[in-house]
Amino acid sequence: MENKYENDLLNYASKLDALVEGYGKITEYATAIVENQDEAATIRLLQKISIVVDSGKYPMEVKQISNVLKDSLIKYYGYMRVLDICNQNQADDETRTLPELLAELNELIGLNSVKAKVNNLIAFQKVQKLRKNQGLTTANNTLHLAFTGKPGTGKTTVARIVGRVYKQIGLLTKGHFIEVSRTDLIAGYQGQTALKVRKVIEKAKGGVLFIDEAYSITENDHSDSYGRECLTELTKALEDYRDDLVVIVAGYTEPMNKFFESNPGLKSRFNTFIEFDDYTSDELEEILTMMCKNNDYILSEEARSRIKQALNNHVAAKDDHFANGRLVRNIYDDIVMNHAKRVVDIDEPNREILSLITDEDFMEY
């Protein structure tokens, strides 16, 4: 959703630039706003809009674009403010106790080695906190984590739980969760990436900053400049805010290994590395069954049998791009849609018909 507001602001700025021959200044102001919420650029953009609207030399079409640009600016800042409020108060709305959060972690399907490591890590950090409160020597470990494995293996879900648990045991002041990718960290021109990273860090302080596909920071043509600038600033923040910030980087295993090799000081900031294995076909079937149950659907035995065979085939033929839980989500979405198309023309369908997924609803792919 944020991209929509950003894109609208940039698109209308570009259009107005062309219509008034602004020589790129209007677009430059909008870019500075999107990348850094630059207050000076905001004032200049509003001044430029006012000049166009009040001037008698521009046709009505140009003035209309100016007003639309102003509206898009207001909507962008409104969205960003709402996002800030939600992030700041996310942890305050968390009412679950530590035992309830640990139960949520341990009830996740599969991920046995992950759950064991996270439980051990939580126990260790909890005791370190208790020792610190009693004036005892504590380990000088950071809270930052690295999650490796294919997509759809539960990395984001576990990261959210870790943040809430750390809040409950007093390691984080807020426990909120902010997820970012390369586009949220890398600016469009030299020298501005550090400012962008600092702004993200500022929002994440007190909680968890989750960087998905973190290796993408150094995987493009600008890796020698923009990517290095980002990693330098990020590495500094990992140390500066280690007492009230958890940074979790995640991605495919091999690219993540190269990512850590790209900056000598980066790997030393991470004490815990957790590998997320692929789900088995039985675990994938269990996830699908749970999704159906949570949404009041029931799989017929025939449908279950066909889906189980398809999952076995997918697992047997999997490659580096195997989608794990995302595969199950796609299957679920398809069978629910096919069920709806089959049932919609039935006169007064009863509860069983509205709930039952049959083998007709599953189309193998």
From TrEMBL:
Organism domain of life: Bacteria
Keyword Lipid biosynthesis belongs to the record: no
Protein name (database record): ATPases of the AAA+ class-like protein
Alphabetized GO MF terms: ATP binding; ATP hydrolysis activity
Species: Syntrophomonas wolfei subsp. wolfei (strain DSM 2245B / Goettingen)
Domain called AAA+ ATPase: residue spans: 141-280
Family: Belongs to the CbxX/CfxQ family.
Keywords: ATP-binding, Nucleotide-binding
